[in-house]
Every structure is written in C-alpha cells, then in structure tokens.
Design a protein that fits this description.
Helices cover about 25% and strands about 40% of the residues. Strands 1-2-3 form a three-stranded antiparallel β-sheet, with helices on one face. It has one domain. With about 90 residues, the chain is α+β, with helices and mostly antiparallel strands. The chain is built from one helix and three strands.
C-alpha cells in the first residue's frame, strides 16, 4: 500500500449489499492508507479525522455553555421538568 498526508477534498463511496450508494465529502488533513483488495479501494482515515471531530464537539459544548448557562450550576431547573421526575436522596452508610 501507500501512505500520504494531505489536505484535500475527499469523496468516499460507501456501499453495502442492503443500501444505496452514498457519497460522503469532507475537507480534512488526513492520513490515508490505500489497499487494493478484489478490485475494491479501501480507504482508512486515521487519527487526524478524530482529532478534528473532538475539537468541533468541544468548541460547540463550550459555546453552548457560555450562551445558555451551565446546566450543572446550583439552582438550575431543567426545561424538561414536566417530562422527568428526579429525586435525590443521601444514604447514611
């Protein structure tokens, strides 16, 4: 196989025996390992893609907490109070 580290637009073709052909397009720095197996191109996107995903989730979480307040703050009341019933008790052990 071969390895390349590059920034580019990636179109990945995903198909299994039960579903229609789908195309996924991403712009990422990626480490691509390429193998040819029974005329199928298998692409494995490595660690860098996961780092980008984690950074995006962390950024979204921090922004949401700044804009809407921290849901773990003392005195916070859930907007879903009529859908949930929460009871907090302390056991003396």
């Amino acid at each position: 196989g071969s390895e390349k580290l590059l920034l580019r637009e990636v179109f990945t073709s995903v198909q299994d025996s039960e579903s229609l052909l789908e195309y996924i397009c991403t712009f990422v720095f990626e480490l691509v390992h390429i193998w040819f197996l029974d005329r199928k191109l298998i692409m494995e996107i490595g660690f860098l893609d996961k780092v980008e995903d984690n950074a995006a989730v962390r950024s979204w979480s921090e922004t949401t907490q700044r804009e809407e307040g921290d849901s773990l703050a003392e005195g916070y009341i859930s907007e879903l109070w009529d859908f949930t019933s929460i009871s907090v008790t302390q056991n003396s052990l």
